[in-house]
UniProtKB/TrEMBL annotation:
The chain crosses the membrane at residues 60-81, 157-179, 225-247, 272-292, 304-327, 347-374, 395-419, 431-450, 457-479, 485-505. It comes from Linum tenue. One of its GO terms (cellular component) is plasma membrane. It is a multi-pass membrane protein. Potassium transporter. InterPro entries: K+_transporter, K_trans_C, K_trans_N. This is Potassium transporter. Residues 23-524 form the K+ potassium transporter integral membrane domain. Residues 537-781 form the K+ potassium transporter C-terminal domain. It is found in: Cell membrane; Membrane. One of its GO terms (molecular function) is potassium ion transmembrane transporter activity. Residues 665-686 are annotated as: Disordered. Its main location: membrane. Belongs to the HAK/KUP transporter (TC 2.A.72.3) family.
């Protein structure tokens, strides 16, 4: 028996390692495409104008030393060994760090948060992990936490900091495809004359970029299996060429890895060497992807791929280029310092093709990452609602946003045509990359104190060490403001303005809803019929409120005194966790006594969750309400307090509760008894007087027994479902109230209203059918 157990464990261990290695291989195409193509333009950007190398090779050795130690300290030490540990239940990126801080310090920017959200398993998972570590919260961490919770200004600064990092990631989504593709295509200049290559380089780059963005709506799952082999071949190619150049041109190039050459480089070149750091910085473009794409893979797989293949290949590639340049001092133009000049003549065309493919893969990864981070911003109320298309039903996280895709394409073509050279594109991309890293460093220092509960001196040491390195590169990039670095600043400013205006307007709109919500006492005073005619069907009233009756309801009833027999106040909200499990999806509660047939349903999604379509959502919603009625039938008290709507019950979807009620919908024909349902009771609706499109039935478990009132409630819910579902949406017009400042009037009346009119509706994620939608207009004076 012990032998069988040991063999089983060995088999599981082998399977787990096989899975990890498979993920490590797949991560090459998704995570490391951008980072692996950096050798195409690093030396070319570094030696552009600020410095030139002389016969002594001190500049070349100094640049190589900077590249080596930058790659070692930032991607390897900072990201692989430290930042990857700060995952948000397996998810990474700027918003993952912000989400962690939101939960630990209660600085959530979402206004409709609830105490019940803290009971989510993913909400508490990280807390439990920390609690079991045995460390106690340091006094400084407690005081910092209370300070953040008390001061709204600090909370806003933290949000703006996270948004700045997000905006720079979007800017990188514009600049990285332009830089990677343009640098890859520039290899044709070694095979064509100077007069002709400039007529090929730009049109070819633009054509590739247009094709890249035009194919986004097909998704990457159909060609995604090619991504990893392309990057793998590219890494093997550049490392092989690097080894060849080292052996053939300068076997002693390894001496340049000494940090002493960095000192000699800066001492000799002085200001020019400092300014050239903006080019050296490009060797770590794409490092943030290791953390941002963590949700698709695992920490171990990303670490294995980087340390065993990506890092050694890049070091060999840079050493090989430096070895070639150290013996070729006659430089005709800055093109001759590019990557392709160190490639043997016979291999240039095959390498050019592989480089273009690798550049496309790297660009694809950053574009997909941009889609993902915009979805996260939209989920957390910091970006206008956009159309999100899930391009794969099997692969998690593969999405396409049409509006953002075409905006990125136009901006990408604009910077490519406007700059037309690697130097200025590199200056622009470098500033975007280093700004994201600085934001990550700042947020990580707070995570170390608040989430990991470590010493404040450890956080200060982290900020001081990595912040100093990144601040040095940031200053070198910022000094080139007029040489291209203004582009990411301008892009980030525009996107940050959009995010801040949308967030401010949404917050003011929610505050108006809270201040003008209808009293439940008023509702109860109307009686079970609510003083109106109740017609067949289910009315879903969409609201942002998690408690109380929205003003839109009273506005509707006043103008049209008729409503559905079953009313559901539906709130679809995001919570600061990456995923909410199906078993915790719904919060259901009664509003008023049972005979009123009023329910509140709060549907909770994580910022990376996929929203279901309308048909599946309706089934899950009706089934969850039915399960709430059944489970609460023995606990229900008719003499409950009037504010009972604050008491909500967690109900999962039908698929997550095998022992719960199941919903069956069929055409209006004779319903046959299913085999295997002898232990279950069926609640069927009586033959309707009018011909309906479908028949509905609930299959209820035998135990526990439900009372008569609950059966009647289920019966009425079933009849309402058969009659159909109507969505009642508020079409709000937001205006700044009288007496507001000119700035507020401009932001609300023009900025927010423009974004609201040109964005998707609040329930667009559910693809609500237009035939079942009823909009109620209302003016919000905020």
């Amino acid at each position: 028996m012990d032998l069988e157990t040991g063999a089983h464990r060995n088999h599981l261990k082998k399977e787990s390692w096989r899975t990890v290695l498979t993920l490590a291989y797949q991560s090459l195409g998704v995570v490391y495409g951008d980072l692996s193509t950096s050798p195409l333009y690093v030396y070319k950007s570094t030696f552009a104008e600020d410095i030139t190398h002389s016969e002594t090779n001190e500049e070349i050795f100094g640049v190589l030393s900077f590249v080596f130690w930058t790659l070692t300290l930032v991607p390897l030490l900072k990201y692989v060994f430290i930042v990857l540990r700060a995952d948000d239940n397996g998810e990474g990126g700027t918003f993952a760090l912000y989400s962690l801080l939101c939960r630990h310090a209660r600085v959530n920017a979402l206004p409709n948060r609830q105490v019940a959200d803290e009971d989510l398993s993913e909400y508490k998972k990280k807390d439990n992990l920390i609690a079991t570590s045995g460390s106690k919260t340091p006094s400084f961490g407690s005081s910092l936490k209370s300070t953040l919770e008390k001061h709204r200004v600090l909370q806003r600064i933290l949000l703006v900091l996270a948004l700045i990092g997000t905006c720079m990631v979007i800017g990188d989504g514009v600049l990285t495809p332009a830089l990677s593709v343009f640098s890859a295509v520039s290899g044709v200049e070694l095979s064509l004359s100077k007069e002709h290559h400039k007529y090929v380089e730009l049109p070819a780059s633009c054509a590739i970029l247009i094709a890249l963005f035009a194919l986004q709506h097909y998704g990457t799952h159909r060609v995604g299996f090619l991504f990893a082999p392309v990057v793998l071949i590219w890494l093997l190619c550049i490392s092989g060429i690097g080894i060849y150049n080292i052996v053939h041109w300068n076997p002693h190039i390894y001496k340049a890895l000494s940090p002493y050459y960095m000192y000699k480089f800066l001492k000799k070149t002085q200001k020019g060497g400092w300014m050239s750091l903006g080019g050296i910085l490009l060797c770590i473009t794409g490092s943030e992807a290791m953390f941002a794409d963590l949700g698709h893979f695992s920490q171990l797989s990303i670490k294995i791929a980087f340390t065993s293949l990506v890092y050694p290949s890049l070091i060999l590639a840079y050493m090989g280029q430096a070895a070639y340049l150290s013996t070729h001092h006659v430089i005709e133009s800055d093109y001759q310092i590019g990557f392709y000049v160190s490639v043997p003549d016979k291999l240039r065309w095959p390498v050019l093709v592989i480089a273009i493919l690798a550049a496309v893969v790297g660009s694809q990864a950053i574009i997909t990452g941009t889609f993902s981070i915009i979805k996260q911003c939209s989920s957390l109320g910091c970006f206008p609602k956009v159309k999100i298309v899930h391009t794969s039903s099997k692969v998690h996280g593969q999405i396409y946003i049409p509006e953002i895709n075409w905006t990125l394409m136009l901006l990408c073509l604009a910077v490519t045509i406007g700059f037309r050279d690697t130097k200025r594109l590199g200056n622009a991309s470098g500033l975007a990359v280093i700004t994201v890293m600085l934001v990550t460093t700042c947020l990580m220092s707070l995570v170390i104190v608040l989430c990991w509960e470590k010493s404040v001196f450890l956080a200060i040491g982290f900020v001081f060490f990595f912040g100093t390195i990144e601040a040095l590169y940031f200053s070198a990039s910022l000094i080139k403001f007029l040489q291209g670095a203004w582009v990411p600043i301008a892009l980030a400013f525009i996107f940050l303005l959009i995010m801040c205006v949308w967030h401010y307007g949404s917050l003011k709109k929610y505050e108006f809803d809270v201040q003008n919500k209808v009293s439940i006492n008023w509702l109860l005073s109307l009686g079970p019929s609510l003083g109106i005619v109740r017609v067949r069907g289910i009315g879903l009233i969409h609201t942002e409120l998690v408690s109380g009756i929205p003003a839109i309801f009273s506005h509707f009833v006043t103008n049209l005194p008729a409503f559905h027999q079953v009313l559901v106040f539906l709130c679809i909200k995001s919570v600061p966790v990456p995923h909410v499990g199906p078993e915790e999806r719904f919060l259901i509660g009664h509003i008023g006594p049972r005979e009123y047939r009023l329910y509140r349903c709060i549907v909770r999604y994580g910022y990376r969750d996929v929203h279901k379509d309308d048909t599946e959502f309706e089934k899950d919603l009706v089934c969850s309400i039915a399960e709430f009625i059944r489970a609460g039938s023995t606990e229900f008290n008719a003499d409950m307090p009037k504010e009972e709507d604050d008491k909500m019950t967690v109900v999962g979807t039908c698929s997550s509760n095998a022992a719960g009620i199941r919903l069956r919908e069929e055409d209006n024909e004779e319903i046959e008894q299913d085999p295997g349902t002898s232990e279950q009771r069926e609640i069927k609706s009586p033959p309707p007087a009018m011909q309906l499109k479908k028949r509905v039935r609930f299959i209820v478990p035998e135990s526990p027994e439900i009372d008569k009132a609950a059966r009647e409630e289920l019966q009425e819910l079933m009849e309402a479902r058969e009659a159909g579902v109507a969505y009642i949406l508020g079409n709000s017009y937001v205006r700044a109230k009288q007496g507001s400042s000119m700035l507020k009037k401009f932001v609300i009346n023009y900025g927010y209203e423009f974004l609201r009119r040109n964005s998707r509706g609040p329930t667009h994620a559910l693809t609500v059918p237009h035939a079942s939608t009823l909009e109620v207009g209302m003016i919000y004076n905020v």
